[in-house]
Amino acid sequence: NMYFNFVLLTRAIQKMEPYIASYDYTTGVVKDDRAVQRLIPKVLKAVRKAGLVFDDSELFLGSDGHELKAEFKENFRNISRIMDCTGCEKCRLWGKTQTLGLATALKALFSYPDRAFRGRFTSLDFKRNEVVALITTYFQFSRSLDAIEMFRGMYQNIVTDWRASQASQLPDK
């Protein structure tokens, strides 16, 4: 579900905010580095504005929580394996990037307590490609949700126009 994945990504970025804010995104390309320095604070502001989207500390609690978590991880690994079989290189790249972005979100939510993202970050084990994939995936899901809203509006306009045309064809009483 697009909305569930977006909430998952949002919560992970909220949790990782201090880490993401202090991360070294330097590429060596001045233009790109400036763009990242300008965009990362905007992303962090957007996720802060969303408020606490869900309490990840309550996930997988209960008597069957451990089993559910293991099943969730296994299903996610299967998705990653399926992406390996995609024939189109561009589709595989985007699929793998988004899979890594979601996996990074899950890693942040389920492998580290909130306090691990405050302070020196010495206990964290995130690779550069994971952080970049997380931010890229958040951006892609944001754009997809914007497109859904746009299409929903277009559909509503078509329905409204159709209803109006049907009403105008009714005989006057």
Compute the average pLDDT: 86
- Please bin the fraction of helical residues: over 70%
Please state the CA-atom Rg, rounded to the nearest Å: 21 Å
As a percent range, the share of strand residues is under 5%
Task: Please characterize this protein's 3D structure.
With 173 residues, this protein is mainly α. It contains five helices and no strands. Helix 1 (2-22) packs across helix 4 (89-111) and helix 1 packs antiparallel against helix 5. The protein is globular. The protein starts with a helix and ends in a 5-residue tail after the last helix. The model has no long low-confidence stretch (mean pLDDT 86).
Q: Would you kindly provide a brief summary of this structure?
A:
By secondary structure, the protein is mainly α. It has helices at about 1-20, 30-50, 65-85, 90-110, 130-170.
